[in-house]
């Protein structure tokens, strides 16, 4: 039987060093099974990869951190339209709790999204997660948009890498203060910074 998950919403400046240490360990263990390079950014007790979230929803149970979702308000460019969004990212669920569902963390974050008054929630995921996310789309929680490339800056500049990267990913959009019909269409989205 799974233990109950208790959620904590906290702004980035409320986190203590011990919180970052625990989060970094959580991310190494959660992202590591998908490839060592995915766990690498969390070495040295860093609890973010590219852009640093401003707000986090952290789920705890009797074993420690169970799940995490980060939020960062930013302007993205969808085609020629500058658009304020709350980017959602750094999503993770401890491997022994897979199936906990992204919907739970989004439900925890939802009141804050409405309080912030952002027009849309925005995120990107791998194509392999399409079926998982489309279940939530049937409930009107989000829309999965395909056929869009997202341009981002690399979180760290390396001499052997381009300063930007373009990825073919699934874009996830959640209507918050505006309806989905007002989301602009474009084949390219510029994040104008690193991925959350």
UniProtKB/TrEMBL annotation:
Subcellular localization, as worded in the UniProt entry: Cytoplasm
Domain of life: Bacteria
Listed InterPro entries: NodA
Alphabetical keyword list: Acyltransferase, Cytoplasm, Nodulation, Transferase
Pfam family, one: NodA
Recorded GO MF terms: acyltransferase activity
EC class: transferase
CC annotations in GO: cytosol
E.C. code: 2.3.1.-
Homology family: Belongs to the NodA family.
Function: N-acyltransferase required for nodulation. Acts in the production of a small, heat-stable compound (Nod) that stimulates mitosis in various plant protoplasts.
Name the UniProt record assigns to this protein: Nodulation protein A
